[in-house]
Amino acid sequence: MVLVAAVVVVAERVSAARVRGPSEVVARPLQPRQVLEPRPEARRGGPPGVGERTETVVEPGRVTCVPSTHVCSERSYLLEVYYPASVPGSAVADAPAAASATPWPLIVFAAGFDEDPSAYAPLIDAWVRAGYVVAAPRFPLSSAWALRTYGVNLGDVALADAFESDMLNEPGDLEAAYRAVAQLDASGPLAGRIALGQAAAIGQSDGGDVVVASSTNTCCELPWIRAAVVLSGAIFPPFGGTFFARSVPLLVVQGSADTVNPPAASQAIYDEALGPKYLEWLSGADHLEAYTTTDAYEQVVARVTVAFLDTYLRGEPPSATQLGTVGTVAGLAEEQSDGST
User: Fold this and answer.
1) CB of 228 within 8 A of CB of 249?
2) By the 8 A CB rule, do 3 and 180 touch?
3) In whole angstroms, what is the distance from residue 107 CA to residue 128 CA?
4) pLDDT of 26 above 90
5) Which of 109, 193, 196, 294 has the highest CB neighbour number within 10 Å of its CB?
6) What is the dihedral sign for C-alpha 176, 182, 183, 185?
7) pLDDT over 90 at 340, yes or no
């Protein structure tokens, strides 16, 4: 199925070199850690499984130019949509949707550079089993799929930076994803099942940079974003505009051993955000582990993100979601906030 989403061009691709990338992650041996139970989906009595639909999204009026070939074409990408399913399993293709008395809130997810949405399967699975629909673009130039397809050697820094800088166009891809989901909610197996007015944006690494811009910056603000989660992201000045021009509930998650986006980057986001805002520190976590590996870090991130989303999308009180306390685990993680709601 091809979904057409009309959007405006957010920003032209820039050729300025990026100063970081996945190749800079320092590998560390994993230490034994406490396993936390139950997971958030178990606490909520989630659906039996997770279904997946893939849709081709076309963005009329927007053009993608491949830096290595200089070939330009109408911008398009593959959108992966995950939803609560009535059959067991994870990412079950075209599975029947689970029964629900109310529509499911929406998460639009932005992956990091040289990553595909599937890399974040543990977190996506937790969010869906907690009663959310997740729509995740496979970005046309910055995804792992794109870098493989175009034969990009990350050792060629100039070329890798040219592909990565397409992130300036990715707020438009998030808008296209939201409009594509609106079409799915209008007709087909997911019709009437998605709460479009209860939508959040979540991003990791470069995807986190995109979410900061899309939720708060005058350059490319997307008004449907009611809450934002930034996982090891940063403020990226080439977006231009004015950051934090509006108040949106914000959760920032950061590992203390991250050498790609160091802790100071997340601290800066938290300090400048208007609030309500929360900052989750993961002691000893690196840039990717907490979001792509099923371990105690990922379980903490799943818990605190679900509590945050339940509070600001579902309107549940913090006393019920445990937001403000659920993210604090002795020796592993600490949650802080500005005290506003």
Assistant:
1) yes
2) yes
3) 9
4) no
5) 109
6) positive
7) no
> Three-state SS for 183?
helix
Tell whether the torsion through CA atoms of 195, 247, 239 and 121 is positive or negative. negative
What burial letters (b/e) apply to 193-215, b meaning 16+ CB within 10 Å?
Answer: bbbbebbbbbbbbbbbbbbbbbb
d(CA 117, CA 242): 29
Q: How far apart are CA 330 and CA 337, in angstroms?
A: 17
What pLDDT digit, counting tens, does each position of 144-165 carry? Answer: 999 999 999 999 999 999 999 9
Tell me: the pLDDT tens digits for 111-124?
999 999 999 999 99
Question: Hey, what long-range contacts does 184-189 have (CB within 8 A, 24 or more apart)?
Answer: 184/3, 184/53, 184/55, 184/81, 185/103, 189/53, 189/94, 189/96, 189/97
Helix (H, G, I), strand (E, B) or coil at 164: helix
Q: Residues 106, 135: contact at Cβ < 8 Å?
A: yes
Task: At 218, list the tokens.
Answer: 């005058």
Sign of torsion over alpha carbons 122, 127, 130, 132? negative
Specify the CATH number for 2-6+38-337; select among 3.40.50.1820, 1.10.10.10, 3.30.750.24, 3.40.50.2300.
3.40.50.1820
Looking at residue 73, its pLDDT comes to 97
Across the chain, the runs of DSSP E, i.e. the strands, are: 2-4, 49-65, 72-85, 89-93, 104-110, 133-138, 194-204, 225-231, 250-255, 277-282, 333-337
- Domain ranges, ordered by start, for the chain: 2-6+38-337
Q: Using CB atoms within 10 A of its CB, is residue 320 exposed (0-12), middle (13-18) or buried (19+)?
A: exposed
pTM of the model: 0.90
C-alpha count within 13 angstroms, C-beta hemisphere, residue 289: 22
Q: Are 300 and 307 in contact (CB under 8 A)?
A: no
Cα–Cα distance for residue pair 204/210, rounded to 1 Å: 9
Q: By C-alpha distance, which of 275, 277, 280 is closest to 291?
A: 280
Torsions phi, psi of 97, nearest 5?
-70, 150
Q: How far apart are CA 308 and CA 201, in angstroms?
A: 12
